[in-house]
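To whoever is on call:

I kicked off a structure prediction for a single chain this morning and the downstream step that reads the tokens threw a length-mismatch warning. I double-checked the sequence; it's 119 residues and nothing unusual in it as far as I can see. Pasting both halves so you can look.
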Amino acid sequence: MCFNYKILSKFCFFFIALSINSQVTIGSLNEPVKGSILDIKQFNPDNKNITAKAGILLPRVELKSPTELSFSDFTISDDLDEGGQKLKHTGMIVYNVNETLPFKKGIYVWSGSEWLLQE
């Protein structure tokens, strides 16, 4: 009996694992768009292709150097880039509040080697 229970539980786990979907929609119960990992919307597109009545609030940080993955108490400089952390953070999006040159307030994306202002 114990042997049959183990086989049955493994069989059930296998089929449950096959049906798990890693795509997520935040803000609604609608299905995410195929090919997206994260879909942020309140509702399905209307006739103007609008999917929300609000936006995303990005994390606000104070960037310190254009070529260092650095803000607040967190810094990864070239000599401390253990495990390729700079590349692992490629695509990170933040809202910079520091207006000290060379920075302006605005949305920045980490390219893997520098912060790029999105204008």
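Update from on-call: the warning came from a stale cache, not from the record. Cleared it. Sanity check on the structure: The chain is about 20% helix and 20% strand.
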